[in-house]
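cron nightly-structures :: item 1 of 1
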Amino acid sequence: MKRVILNEGVNHALRPVLEEHGFPTETVQYRKWRGLSNHSWIAEAGKAGYDVVVTTDQGIPDQQNLHKLGLGVVVLNDPKLAITPDTIRRIVDAIRSVGPGDWIMVDVRDT
């Protein structure tokens, strides 16, 4: 199963929900990477064996060499994530689909 790391801007209530779906999930804060530049903590995440970064930072796919790092990125388009069954389904589907070096934008706005 893919290991997931949540960036600082992601609602941490998502962590236990992803765990329930079988994704071991931690946060940047838990790993004590808070305050590091994106370049630094994402490189550390790759070294630590994470497979997927979940973030609200839409610039990460353009700023990082995801292929070199071997990470997939799921970008949430709204930091005010409404945790509903529909948004969870979209996020879980994106995590399952994203491969190393790829990124997926997920619309998490409550519609």
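cron nightly-structures :: done
Residues 4-106 form one domain.
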